[in-house]
Each structure stands twice: as structure tokens, then as C-alpha cells.
Write a structure and sequence with these properties.
The complex is a heterodimer.
Chain A lengths: L1 E10 L2 E11 L4 E5 L6 H9 L6 E6 L2 E2 L5 H8 L2 E4 L11 H12 L4 H14 L15 H13 L5 E5 L7 H18 L2 E6 L2 H7 L2 E6 L2 E6 L1 H4 L5 H7 L3 H23 L1
Parallel strand pairs in A: 3-8, 3-9, 6-7, 7-8
Antiparallel strand pairs in A: 1-2, 1-4, 4-5, 9-10
Chain B lengths: L1 H15 L7 H41 L9 H40 L2 H7 L4 H38 L5 H9 L4 H27 L5 H30 L1
Helix pairs in contact in B: 2-3, 2-5, 3-5, 3-6, 3-7, 3-8, 5-7, 7-8
The chains are: A alpha/beta, B mainly alpha.
């Protein structure tokens, strides 16, 4: 579980995060959503320690990040897996070497054991046979899957994904979303996803935090979000006419279903 | 004020490199990889430049030595001292600032922009130790070797040019090479080589490591790093000459 209390972050005169408090539960996909510039990526980077917050507390299973020694922080980071927006694969290494890198750096496994682990995670993300390919030789969706494989190879307790669907077609996005959801439940890890893809929100949003101008505007599940009365949230999620129509249709269907149930 | 901020950031980067490696074997591999990149990768250009520097120095020295009172063997002596004292350390380092420096800056800049450095940090790796330190150590090992080789090749190039152009016979050139040799010059050249190697590796590493923006900024930081390195090499060249000679 990740707990964030009164987190603050500014860059110069510009306040990016203002008293953000959230609790991210284990075994669930916790989604941070919001429009561009709302502070969601800064929030993510403050949680994982790439940015130092100006105030507030970030704790991982009760361990307060700011109180940890350098060595303790290193240990904690080895329990964190991260999928970056651009996948951040090492260009000069093959897919196999990219995934094996954390194992080489942090484990004393034999070469055979490492290769077994690499092949296991590659199979888990449906990328068998791509071992010898370079990142430049695979598609965007495949890069994301390799990024996920590298993130989970050390069996992390926390998985962070920064816009996992950016630049992907809806079908591939769905594959990535389902992979994230399945890995979260299978390994019982705390997953935090930053996104503004509404398909992801509806598909995997166990717990959603809506960020608006640097503060948490709304929180709830994917079942609750569609019925929310929050004006700012509705402006964000129903920005497209298609989604507005879908909401109206869904509400009409639900009303009809309720009436039918009452009649029975 | 901006200069002091950047200089402080540079010093902090250097300080941050000295932490215990997570896995010494991986750091050793990276160090060896950088030795190959910097040493073997720059070898062809160093060989070509050195041979021609020596050859041109011979031809130009012969052109200027018109007095019949100055023995022809003096050309060998001038080529030797010019190559050891100035041409090999300084010219080769300036070329390496372009070849090696721009490569270091653009490699680290690209890793920064594409979030590869962030990915390493998230894994719990000190990126300054893993990415910057091996480059500086490899440069400190390989660049003095390249400069030493350059001095030999330059002298040999000068001797060959003297022979081919009928400026002076090889045996007379060799007499000049052996006369009034001062070992202090070699130590001076090596002092310059180590200083320039540090500049050529650490300055571009700083510009690449702290780049922000996009691909345009990578190119800009790479160019800036080469310009700053060249200026620092020339300043250090003067300072060392004034201090040590």
C-alpha cells in the first residue's frame, strides 16, 4: 500500500501539486487521471522519488520515503517496477539483454537461471521469440510489453506505469491494459497508472484519482465515475460527444432496467 | 551567477560518482566497453592526424630553416619536441573533444531525454557512478595512450616525409631525434594528456547528463560541450605550460 499525505511540489513560482493525499491499495490498479498539466506525472515522479516533494509524506507499506537512508532507498527501488511513457528501453541492448539487465545488476543467479526468468516474463507478456530483436526493430506496443517484462522481472511489490497507452491503437491499448490488470492481481502488487485514456479508466480503474490543477478533485472506482456529479470530472471524461452519448444511453438502459425490476 | 550554479552542479556530479557499485562486475564491463569505444574507436583518426601533423611539421620547419649555419638534423629535433610538447597532446585532445566528447554528450543526452537514465535510477542504480564514472576513467586510461602513440606516429610521419621529400636523410633526422632529449618533456606531455582527458570526458558528460528538452537540445548540448571542452583545453594548455616549463 502506498500512502501519500499532503504532498506539495512547486517549480519556481508555479505550484504543481497542492496538498495531495491519496491511499493506493495493494492488489488494485490505482489510476491517476487528469488533463495535461494537471500534475499527474509530477505526482508519479514524487512518489517514486525522481522529484523531491516540497512538503508532505510518501510512504510505502508504512516506510516513510524521506526517512530512509540511501541504502534503504536503493532496496526500496528494487521493489519498484516502472513502465515509462516511451518505454525507456536501452537502445543498444536486445530485448533479452534489456530484461536481463536488472537480474545481472541485482541478483547472483546463474546465466541459465536468468535466461529461464527472462523467457518466463517474455512469455507472460506474449513476446516469445523476440529475444534477439533490438528495440528499434519492434513496434510501439511490443516496446510497451517489453517495458512491462523488464519492470516485473525482479518480482516488484509496486508497479508504476506512465501513460502506458500513449501512441497506441485502441486494440493494442486494450491488450496492454489487460496485461497490467492481470499482472496486478496475479502478483498481488500495488499498481499505479497515470493515464488520460478513458478506455483504460473503464477497463482497469479499480481506484481512480482525478487530478485538477494540482489537487485531487475526485476519487472513486470505474463503476462510480460514470455516475459522478462532479462538474470538473464530467467535463474531463465526457469531453468527447461520443462518450456523452454513451453515458446517456447507459443511464437510459439502467433506468429501464430499474423500472423493469420494480415491475417484477 | 548562472556560471556558478552550473559549476556547482558539475562539481556535485563529480562528487556523486563516488558511491559503492551495486555490482562491480557490471561496472567493470561498462568500463571495458568505454575503453574500447574511446580507445579503439578514436584510433583511426588519431593515426591519420598524427602522421600528417609530423609530416607537415617537417616540411614547414625545413622551409623556415634556410640558414646554412643550422645543421639539417635540427629538423628532427624540432619535430620531436613539437610533437611531444604541443602537437600530440593539444591537437589530438581537441580532435578527441569533437569525436569522443560529442559522442558522450549525445549518448547521455539521448538517454536522459528518452528516460533511460530515469529507468536506471528507478531500478536503484546510481547513474552518475554507472554512466559517468566509467567514461571518465576510460578516458583517463586511453587518451594518454593515444597521445603517446600520436607522438611516436607524428615523429615517424615527419621522418618519412623528410625522406620522401628529400628534405633530410633518415640517418641525419635520427641524429636530431637523439640530440638534447629531455625526459621532462615527456612528463609534461603526460601531465597535459591526463588533464585534457579529464576535460574531454567530464565536461561533455555534464552537458549530456543534465540536458532537458528534446532532440534539438541534445544537438545543442553536444555542440556546447565540444566548444567548452576546446576552450578549457587551450586555457589548461597555457596554465600547464606556465606552471611546469
Amino acid at each position: 500500500m502506498i500512502e501519500i499525505t499532503n504532498l506539495k511540489k512547486s517549480f519556481g513560482d508555479r505550484t504543481i501539486l497542492e496538498d495531495v493525499s491519496v491511499v493506493m491499495e495493494t492488489g488494485k490498479s490505482n489510476l491517476i487521471i487528469g488533463s495535461s498539466g494537471s500534475g499527474k506525472t509530477v505526482l508519479l515522479k514524487c512518489i517514486i522519488g525522481l522529484f523531491t516533494p516540497d512538503g508532505g509524506i510518501v510512504s510505502f507499506d508504512g516506510k516513510i520515503m524521506a526517512d530512509l537512508t540511501v541504502e534503504e532507498k536503493k532496496d526500496l527501488r528494487q521493489q519498484i517496477g516502472m513502465l515509462f511513457q516511451g518505454s525507456a528501453l536501452f537502445d543498444s541492448m536486445t530485448v533479452e539483454k534489456n530484461i536481463k539487465f536488472p537480474l545481472d545488476m541485482f541478483t547472483t543467479l546463474t546465466h541459465g537461471e536468468k535466461m529461464k526468468k527472462v523467457n518466463e516474463v517474455l512469455a507472460r507478456v506474449n513476446m516469445e521469440g523476440a529475444n534477439k530483436k533490438l528495440p528499434s526493430e519492434i513496434s510501439g506496443g511490443m516496446k510497451k510489453r517489453v517495458g512491462i517484462a523488464r519492470a516485473i522481472v525482479l518480482n516488484p511489490k509496486y508497479l508504476f506505469c506512465d501513460e502506458p497507452n500513449s501512441g497506441l491503437d485502441p486494440q493494442t491499448s486494450l491488450v496492454i491494459d489487460r496485461l497490467i490488470r492481470d499482472i496486478t492481481t496475479e502478483f498481488n502488487i500495488t499498481t499505479v497508472v497515470v493515464t488520460h485514456d478513458m478506455n483504460s479508466v473503464m477497463e482497469i480503474g479499480d481506484h481512480i484519482f482525478y487530478m485538477y490543477k494540482g489537487h485531487k478533485q475526485w476519487e472513486g472506482s470505474n463503476k462510480e465515475i460514470i455516475h459522478s456529479n462532479d462538474e470538473k470530472l464530467n467535463e474531463f471524461i465526457f469531453a468527447s460527444d461520443f462518450l456523452q452519448d454513451a453515458k446517456q444511453m447507459r443511464m437510459m438502459q439502467e433506468d429501464k432496467h430499474k423500472k423493469e425490476t420494480v415491475n417484477i | 551567477m548562472k556560471f556558478f550554479t552550473k559549476f556547482g552542479q558539475y562539481l556535485l556530479m563529480l562528487k556523486g560518482m563516488f558511491t559503492r557499485p551495486e555490482n562491480p562486475k557490471m561496472y567493470w564491463q561498462e568500463f571495458m566497453h568505454q575503453c574500447v569505444e574511446i580507445g579503439i574507436g578514436s584510433l583511426p583518426i588519431v593515426v591519420i592526424i598524427s602522421l600528417f601533423l609530423g609530416a607537415v611539421t617537417t616540411v614547414q620547419t625545413a622551409y623556415q630553416l634556410v640558414s646554412p649555419l643550422v645543421p639539417a638534423s635540427t629538423i628532427g629535433q624540432i619535430v620531436r619536441d613539437s610533437m611531444i610538447l604541443e602537437l600530440s597532446p593539444t591537437v589530438v585532445s581537441i580532435v578527441l573533444a569533437g569525436v569522443v566528447g560529442s559522442k558522450i554528450a549525445s549518448e547521455l543526452g539521448n538517454m536522459r531525454i528518452s528516460e533511460q537514465i530515469d529507468a536506471l535510477e528507478i531500478m536503484g542504480i546510481n547513474t552518475k557512478t554507472y554512466l559517468v564514472l566509467p567514461k571518465i576513467l576510460a578516458a583517463l586510461l586511453m587518451i594518454p595512450c593515444l597521445i603517446t602513440l600520436s607522438a611516436f606516429l607524428g615523429i615517424w610521419g615527419g621522418r618519412t616525409a623528410a625522406n620522401l621529400s628529400n628534405i633530410v636523410a633518415s640517418d641525419i633526422f635520427d641524429i636530431g631525434l637523439r640530440s638534447n632529449f629531455s625526459p621532462k618533456n615527456v612528463w609534461f606531455a603526460l601531465s597535459k594528456a591526463y588533464t585534457f582527458a579529464f576535460i574531454v570526458s567530464s565536461v561533455p558528460a555534464y552537458f549530456g547528463y543534465f540536458v532537458s528538452g528534446g532532440s534539438l537540445e541534445i544537438g545543442r548540448s553536444s555542440t556546447t560541450s565540444v566548444v567548452v571542452s576546446c576552450i578549457l583545453i587551450l586555457v589548461a594548455d597555457y596554465a600547464l605550460a606556465a606552471l611546469l616549463l
